[in-house]
Amino acid sequence: MTLLGRELILGVGGGISAYKSADLLRRLQDIGFGVTVIPTRASLNFVGSATWEALSGRSVNENLWNNVHEVPHIKSAREANLIVVAPATADLIAKISNGIADDLLTNVISAATSPIILVPAMHPEMWLSAANQANVATLRSRGVLVIEPDEGRMTGEDFGIGRYPEVSRIVLEISNFANINSDLLGKKILVTAGGTREAIDPVRFIANHSTGKQGYAIAKAARNRGAEVVLIAANSNLADLPGVEIVHVSSAEQMQKALTERFPTCEILLMAAAVADAKPANTSTVKIKKANYQSIELETNPDLLASLSKIRSAKQFLVAFAAETSEIDQTTIESAKSKMVNKGADLIYLNNVSNGAIFGADETAGLLIDSNGETIEFKNQSKDTLADLLLDRALNKLR
Q1: Among residues 107, 208, 224, 235, which one is catalytic?
Q2: Would residue 176 show up in a list of annotated catalytic residues for this protein?
Q3: What is 102-126 written as a DSSP string?
Q4: Terminal CA-to-CA distance of the chain, rounded, Å?
Q5: DSSP secondary-structure letter at 190?
Q6: Sheet holding 375-382: strands in order across?
Q7: pTM of this prediction exceeds 0.85
Q8: Does residue 367 register a pLDDT over 50?
Q9: Domains of the chain (ranges plus CATH)?
Q10: Closest CA to 316 of 225, 259, 398
Q11: In the predicted model, what is the mean pLDDT of residues 122-130?
């Protein structure tokens, strides 16, 4: 199970341990989640909306009948990548188990398709009651994670199972259940994608077949692992990625400007874009007539990655890409190694794009080469798989 983003709804039930969810909210933010709190009306007797708004930085709504024109329960359910209810009272567990939706939180849960995690907290007699245990069993059979409560002191002199679990255990169980990898949390990743266009006149240009799929896959993987991601996209028709800063460019010159502004603050740069090697020496401001459209004088574009490598710091990691139209053999491998050295990269991905391969496809095939000469072969694996492997190698090197 892989989250496409890090938007989380924290539902808060009406139990005395609701105050402990303030710490849980903070810890969820620490691993990169944007948290929206939906309290039950009963829970506001223990912790008010002002506390949740101050901690989450977001408005808090518990009333199903506010902003009805926006259909808030459906909107919230669709935007959430994960729903956590803590504390989950016996009342809430019973409602969720039986599909009862009588407030905003239970309506959101009823409409949700994202993973749901419940953190029960109640007196031992309530936790162990036959009705509650049957409801928990039903929820678990539907794929809901119901975290076992701790054993310990409750309110007053009561002692037993039913205590709100330690927050560290809750976060660990959430991460394991939803397969959340936060190893890039706090890292700044810069990615290029797509293919540049070099204008000949207002209607014609020099371009290539790159669609941006590999660069977008890298940006998505980095975002999902907690990174702060900037994607410089050249002429790609792919939809913008939520949670990723997208900078749209067209030409190599525009990409160079965007890279120059953002490169100094990044820790990992992955140059997946296909940048045109040359551009017209002169660009006409009007359409060139067919009779005059006979030859184009070209001039070389600057090597963007080589230029950046000259100002890099020792704490930055650079990844290059090389596209060939011949079989990967010793000749093309040596050429890729030379390219890696000349561009000042730490890693290069070599692939064969002959006969229309790779461009626009969901899968890739090629050879990953690092500065130590180690190679990893890819045979028809997804671009998402390559994206995560590139990030793994970069992170290990930085460490």
Answers
A1: 208
A2: no
A3: -SHHHHHHHH--S-EEEEE---HHH
A4: 27
A5: E
A6: 245-249, 228-234, 188-194, 268-271, 317-324, 347-352, 363-370, 375-382
A7: no
A8: yes
A9: 7-178 (3.40.50.1950), 188-398 (3.40.50.10300)
A10: 398
A11: 94
